[in-house]
Design goal:
The chain is mainly alpha-helical. The chain has helices spanning 2-24, 28-54, 61-74, 96-99, 101-122, 127-148.
Length: 152
């Protein structure tokens, strides 16, 4: 029994190492596409919320809750796509992403925190609070774009 457990543990360790190594060898252009796809989806699901907060679209609490949940998941996805190996790839990312990596990481964390607040506030049903939190999320996104993304 002890030999069998040891064999399983060794196989799992080798498999985990191979998986980690394979992930580390993802082509830089694939990483860029992955992060851009995640950001595109973030924009897709945030756009209607921004319009509701500005009053240019009717407020719909069900859409806010659904989109906030999607954003909560999506906000975790793009960041490993900013691996150092992608630095020379064609994208809108400024060199500051890598030169000010700690500041960039703080922006990611602020965004995740503001989205988590939006998820909670959206469950409460107070439209004014939800709109204020949507604006807070937008400011967080915009702050990162101002500092780490080429102007469009």
């Amino acid at each position: 029994m002890k030999h069998r457990l040891t064999a399983v543990a060794v196989a799992a360790a080798i498999g985990a190492g191979a998986t980690w190594e394979a992930a580390a060898q993802v082509k830089p252009d694939t990483l860029v596409k992955q992060r851009q796809a995640a950001m595109t989806l973030i924009g897709k699901y945030f756009g209607p919320l921004g319009a509701m907060a500005k009053g240019t679209a009717p407020y719909d609490a069900a859409i806010v809750q659904r989109n906030a949940g999607y954003l909560d998941v999506l906000a975790k996805m793009p960041w490993d796509g900013f691996h150092e190996s992608t630095r020379g790839e064609k994208s809108a990312a400024l060199p500051a992403v890598w030169e000010k990596a700690a500041e960039f990481k703080q922006g990611q964390e602020r965004m995740a925190a503001e989205i988590a607040k939006l998820v909670q506030v959206s469950k409460g049903g107070d439209e004014a609070s939800v709109k204020n939190q949507i604006a807070a999320v937008g400011r967080t996104c915009g702050g990162c774009h101002d500092n780490f993304r080429e102007k469009r």
